[in-house]
Automatic annotation (TrEMBL):
SUPFAM superfamilies: FdhE-like (SSF144020)
NCBIfam families: FdhE
Keywords linked to the UniProt accession: Cytoplasm
Gene responsible for this protein: fdhE
Protein name per its UniProtKB record: Formate dehydrogenase accessory protein FdhE
Phylogenetic placement of the source organism: Bacteria, Pseudomonadati, Pseudomonadota, Alphaproteobacteria, Hyphomicrobiales
Amino acid sequence: MALKGKIVPEPVDIGQIAVPPFAQLPDAATLFESRAERLAALAPGHALEPYLRFLTAIARAQHGAVGQLPAGTLPGKDHIAFCHARELPVLDRLAWKRDASFVAGARAIATELTGTAMPEPAAQALAAFAGRDDASLEALADRVLREEHQDGEVAEVLFAGAALELHFACMAALLDPADLAPVEPRSLCPVCGSLAIASVVEAAHGRQGARFLCCSLCQTRWNYTRIQCAHCVSTKGIAYQNIEGGSKAVRAETCNECRTYTKILYLEEDADIDPVADDLASLPLDILVSEAGWARACPSFYLMPDGDDGDLPPLSSAG
């Protein structure tokens, strides 16, 4: 995908804040509805408009599924204390045993998407996903979390990822913020241990200038040092890149120590930002930063390679 333009370094204002809260848990009742609204607002006239509209449908399906889930089973105080003592996430994505709400959510999403217009490969992938039995859905989810999915099921990763995101976000929403503490390394989510899909710099009074990493799985946000790599935690060689003449609301934080980048979003520039939606809509920035030599630190369920190009999200012809 050829693009015109160049990335330019941007200065950063560290901001002033006394004691920001450590974590912000997702609100499952509004999370996916708000994302759908943001995607729908970003789509018109966008180079990836058909795909953003398809993702809007997925977010709406996730929102519709929230009310259909059985109550989640949370860890007890002993488990939480054990995790705190060892600086471990309380619902580690690779170790926590998912309850029945995961499969219920996966099936609800597939049902909600019935009748949605999509390219034939997507329709086939959805049919394959919906046709799996419970054990097969769980096994697929385990492979997706470990990034070990098989070539023949790549197109299903998007739907499995949406179901996992729904499950872990709903579980995180049930936690008490007081039950959360930093884990090691600090760049990992204190709830599920995932990497950050992006970070957000707050603009609200009392939080202005505070930076929160945004979990790529459960959507928890946790406070993090302003100028520090969101991947390797280095404070050296950090720079902020922006497409020349483009929006300053979304930039790429690049690290010369690990040669990765993570998006950083500024609510002062755009109060309606959603970490997942705006990450997906800023794909041109990914391409230019990647061409300049940095690798994306955190994969996205919604940005899988498409064919030999590798730059486009799957099903980019969705309409």
